Amino acid sequence: MSRGGAASGRPRWRTGPYWLALQLVLSGSLLLLFLLPIAALFTYAPPQRILAAATNPAVSTALYLTFLASGIAVLAAVVFAIPLGYLLARRAFRGRSVVESVVALPVVVPHLLVGVGLFFLILPGSPLYRFTTAVGLPIYDTIWGVVLVMVFVSAPYTVLAADLSFRAVDGRVLEAARSLGAGPATAFLTVTFPLALRGIVAGLLLTWARAVSEIGGILILAYAVYPGGPYSGPVTSTLSVYVYNLFQTGDLADAAAVSSLFLLIAFVLFFLVRLGERTGWVPWRRGELLP
Amino acid sequence: MGAVAPGGAPSVNAWSVEGVVSHVDGFRLGPVDLELAPGRVVAVLGSSGAGKTTLLRTLAGFLPVRAGRIVRDGVDLTDRPPEERGLGYVPQGLGLFPHRTVERNVSYPLEVRGRTDAIARSRELLERFGLAELAHRRPARLSGGELERVALARALAGEPDLVLWDEPWQALDVEARHELGRVLEELRETDRVPVVVVTHDPSLAFSVADSFLVLRAGKVALRGDAATMLAHPSDAFLARFAGFENVYDRASLERGRPGSLAAWLSERAGTDGVAFVRPTPKAVGDPHGAWEGVVRSARPTPEGLAVTVRVDDLSVALRLPPPPTGVVPFVGARVRFDVEEKSVLALGPPASAPRGTLQ
User: Fold this and answer.
1) B158 closest CB neighbour out of A175, A180, A194
2) Across chain A, which distance is largest between two alpha carbons, in Å?
3) Is B171 within a domain?
4) Dist. CA B107–CA B119, nearest whole Å
5) Under 8 Å CB-to-CB from A139, ≥6 apart: which residues?
6) In B, what residues contact A, Cβ < 8 A?
7) d(CA B298, CA B319)
């Protein structure tokens, strides 16, 4: 047999058309699953309805509350979740795996249960209720209730991302920094933190996404949000609860319109992140943060 | 550098490591004694797990000293944190900052000291190491040899009193190794910084080091200059390091029957075995050689034909003159050869063997 004949007789499944077809079918199915419900939303919500939703003061109030509360939740993650992630990454201590499991808990527990648990925690007469009302941070049906639920369900993403990112910083790079004259604090600020930042920002983005889309716990703890704390507008609810209400009362078209509006806003935000990667005004490179 | 030691005497930058012991994960290093002075290069040798990196990390201050002292010009640095030891430490893998450009890697030691001329000094160093054109690149986009030079430039930027360098020649091609040898030479001549370099590359160790410290299982096996190293390899690792190709342990020799090469070597072996340099046979089929073996392999090298022959159970490396002047043995041919008595060396703890002192 000639050499050419031997080569063409070799099985070619690695790069063969069947393999490629299988890949396309499998990944295509998943992409369709992502896209079809969104497409369905937009077919029920023509542009003029979305525009009407955008100019409806009730909708913009709910949007404002949602972004305000989720922004505060992200700030809380910066302040509390990053140090916890650092602790998990850098310190060996007894009961470490217990702490790790506790961090994973909010991710696996159904969020309605979270709301019920928090509800019992702040029942009138409970120590936490007395404390929060005494310091002027009432929780039930206020923005603080929304923030509390959001932090509970979303902060673990930042803890996990910070843990992984701090862990991924090469110890030898850190040792080089120390030996070259940097004290522990300087080495953290100039080496550890910048190197972990990209992963932490990715975690914060996930935290924000999770916070914004939360409904289960909020239904129980802050179904309606009365003015108080940083929120001073009329009585409203988070966007998720607002859409849920529209849907429950049979206002399907408006539910679709508000949902579409929110999707557009989320899309624009993520598009801006991509644009940032392209133009280089974000601290990470293209493709490193979002898939 | 140029600081004044207590008592008002100008600093000479003499380091002494006195009986230093350190532990890491159940491994015990030491006691290690070392004297370091400006312009001296000490090579730390030893097989994997001998404690070379542990020694460097202990000197750098990343592992606590359990016993002994590290002293520079009379000042005890034993318990000082790494950043207060005046070091240029190049860890294994170099430890370059991936998020900083070459220029800002090199300026780092000056930046953390609040020097305003950090970037200017960095430029000077990059110029000196032939890296000026790479100033604005990230380390990820550099070749192995360039990375080594950046790491060294960074280590020197803070004008260290001591350079610690872990495995500088790992994964470098011949040209880059040569360049690095030249840079190290300059370090000795111009910067006059004492250097402790960890390696398991014999050729470069012999070309740059003034003295050697050999570690075995955490203990100092040998200290001395190149001549001591070559004349008295105390174990199989050092014998191979010093260029002895035929190294045998006792057990493999004791199996030889009376009158065999193995038995003859066994009589001359120390506690750790025996080593001899390559014998050169007179000719293939020379009937006067004392020993006879069967050729197992033959390959040309710059120094002639490297031939492996089998003598009973022993494998022996021979060197034949390069063809066409020499004869080309073929696999399976019989070769007679002699082993010179004076080329045979007993290996083992040299209880009475002379030991150099490390200066």
Assistant:
1) A180
2) 91
3) yes
4) 6
5) A118, A122, A129, A132, A145, A148, A221, A222
6) 57, 60-62, 81-83, 85, 87-99, 108-109, 111-113, 154-155, 157-158, 164
7) 9
Q: With respect to residue B182, please indicate whether it lies within any of the assigned structural domains.
A: yes
pLDDT of residue A7: 46
Choose the CATH number for A57-237 among 3.40.50.2300, 3.10.450.50, 3.40.50.150, 1.10.3720.10: 1.10.3720.10
* Residue B321 DSSP label: P
Q: Does A92 touch chain B (CB under 8 A)?
A: no
Is residue A138 predicted with pLDDT exceeding 50?
yes
The candidate with the shortest Cα–Cα distance to B105, out of B154, B46, B47, is: B154
**Residue B332's pLDDT is what?**
82
Contact (CB<8Å) A178/B62: yes
Q: What percent of chain B has pLDDT over 90?
A: 20
The ipTM estimated for the assembled molecules is 0.75
Query: Given this model, what pLDDT does residue B2 score?
Result: 43
CB atoms within 10 A of CB A154: 28
Q: Summarize the confidence of residues B104-123 as an average pLDDT.
A: 91
Residue with tokens 């070259």: A180
Which 8-state DSSP code applies to residue A182?
A: -
Under 8 Å between Cβ of B228 and B213: no
pLDDT confidence of A153, banded at 50, 70, 90?
very high
Q: Bigger pLDDT: B320 or A43?
A: A43
Q: How many CA atoms lie within 13 A of B138 on its CB side?
A: 6
Q: Rounded distance, CA B156 to CA B122, Å?
A: 10
Eight-class DSSP state of B92: T
Orientation of helix A252-279 relative to helix A239-248, angle to 10°: 150
Residue B14: pLDDT above 90? no
Q: In this structure, is residue B9 part of a structural domain?
A: no
